[in-house]
Amino acid sequence: MSLFDVSPLASAAAKGGRRAPLAERMRPRTLDEYVGQEHLLGEGRPLRLAIERDDPTSMIFWGPPGTGKTTLAKIIAQRTEASFIEFSAVLSGIKEIKQVMVEAEKAAGFGSRTILFVDEIHRFNKAQQDAFLPYVERGTIRLIGATTENPSFEINAALLSRCRVYTLVGLSETQVVALLERALNDSERGLGEMGMTADGEALETIASYASGDARNALNALEVATQLAGGRGVTVLDKALASEAMQRRVLLYDKKGEQHYDVISALHKSVRNSDADAALYWLGRMLEAGEDPMYVARRVVRMAVEDIGLAAPEALNLCLSARDAMHFLGQPEGGLALAQAVVYLALAPKSNAVYTAYGAVRADIEKTAAEPVPLHLRNAPTKLMKELDYGRDYQYAHDVEGKVAAMECLPASLAGRRYYIPTGEGREKLLGARMEEVRRIKEAKG
Question: Does 395 reside within a domain?
Fold first, then answer.
């Protein structure tokens, strides 16, 4: 593959015209066509300024699928005079990319610039990512990477430090509906020649279940219009949209009240130790197409809000269930969440830490930010020691009972008690230990 054989940016028509999927045909070609990411692309926002100024800085686009990462890279390529080369880390190896980078270095000698776009860049391991470093460092290439994974964990730190990271978010349902309407009306690249229309409920249904993924929504619209065309129908309705999405829309409306009502029912069933009801409401959400990672996050919250230290192992179980869902996906991952909610429902309950931390936040909000008591301050220098930093501090390991009779709260909050353990599960033991600590302090005071 030669650097000079690659065309900067071919249009959808040139890549296959009407045979290309609707999502590819409708891919925005300019910033004016682009929908979403206003926090990055609004007037005066950082990414828009970088694009308009043709900033040569390498960058990483991080966000969920269908939010426009590849599209942004292509728009940048269209606005610059640089050669644009697109790779997917799923399909290409580092060997091919190294070859291109070598050719880019030769081209740079003639004053030519190269943008190297790597989709799913997190698929390269850290050692493979090192191959980009010298070329990015020298400015031989302008690297634009796209990833759905957290760059802090998946991108080599040295490479990350040389790139600007932009976080993309899922499109709102209103934005997705606007994209669907544009596709229906566009006769050049979209479905306008079909003379198809859609009622509001149909487009809202598709947008609701697309979870902010424009590609997913456009694919569903294309399927819906094909179904309608095959049946001689010219108006898309909610039933056709539901069939195209292959989801039972009437079971659960992710946009409306049921989204909040059903998660509330799940949480309150767990809190009330009703394992059967918890399983039912979990199933209602997952089988209707709710984002399983949203459910997983809420389940983790239940562990810390309602179970707490009465059964501290519940948090680890829920985090493991989240990881299993992320690793397995649906439907297998749903069993891990089911296991977690049954355990939470049957576990002893305590909101003592939840209540305690709420009281802490309230005190922080309404009281002055007092300085740390001198005896608790660190004293690494002679001056600090002369100022009594650390004076009268008692090292707990050196005193009887491993508890020192010193106050660790600011003066205005001395003696304040936040955490009041219940008598449930492990917390009963923690309560006994707190009482023991209190008695030891009183005896030494």
Answer: yes
